[in-house]
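User: Quick sanity check before I run a bigger batch. Here is a single chain. Can you write out its predicted 3D structure?
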Amino acid sequence: MKLYKHLINLARFKLGATRPTCGPMKVQWELTYSCNLKCRHCQIWKIPPEEIKKNTLNLDQQKKILDDLVLNDVGHVSFSGGEMFLQKTVFQLIAHAKSLGMKVGGNSNAYLINPEIAEKIAESGLDMLYISIDGDNAGTHDYIRGVDGAFDKALDGVRNMKKAKPDIKIFFNTTINNLNVEQLTGIARIARERGIEGLTIEMTNTFDKYSPDKELILSDDKLPILREQIKELFKNFGDLLPHPKGYFDEFETYLKQCDELYRYRCVAGVVSAQIHPNGDLYPCPVAFKKIGNLTEKSFKELWYSDEAGGLRKDIKQGRHPICWITCVSPLNQYLSYLTPTRFYKLLQPKTVKHILKKI
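Assistant: Done. Predicted structure follows.
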């Protein structure tokens, strides 16, 4: 029933509506800004500990928000950080989400996933885990992640999770940059060897707390390498890629003529939402404008508020920062190709399977 509601919501979005008829299909939730790595494409680890503590909700507050999300037809929540497993109560939170009938994903650097933590994750019921891999070798990955041993720890985490919960879906998540663009197929090869479910890939984005070091920005001379890597990925590792080739074709557009991507109306604030550690609600990870705070008002009050409505109108009219990330961009692109007479494609098994693969 929830999927039906979301498909109707998508159809209305395509027809131009800005007011949703239900909550988002998926909510991404940054539980904490605490992080044990020092990534060169992210600035979260520089946030002072006292600020992190002051702006992190307790378990009861977090559970209350989950209860609220379910009442608004949210079927999937994906937790992240910082590093989500630095929050000691995260296993209880995952278990609570599962008890509400939600699908639950997590985003981790896997550094902490030793056999004991893997067992706790398995017992909590986590459905899928996205593990950040930024190189096909320790030298590249550890340099980008800012901590020696991060690569080996991540692969140990994969092995520990596979042993603790063989049926868990594990994806590698790779952010393309100037240092690893030649290693995408190498990362895919490792994914296949390790029995990984899939590989999600996106460009290094340059907004707010995720602003990368300048050395990571992909240079023009590396674009031929990027094209060749993508070509080989689809030739030899296409079964690992949950996103269509059209999504990859726009990587260069994002780098060189990003304003052209405004031709794809963004589903942020309609199909997706983002929660920050302090309960602030945003339409997406770019977090360019806050809708409100979930400790002050209910999700329903915020989601259907005038502020949210105005924000959706701004997004529809292209008054928002442009990005090209896996959480919304592939769906933005797919919906742009649909015409009212082709809405039946939303109900085709292939489409539904694609939607469900990552949710």
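Residues 66 and 97 are 7 Å apart (CA to CA).

User: Great, the batch can go ahead then.
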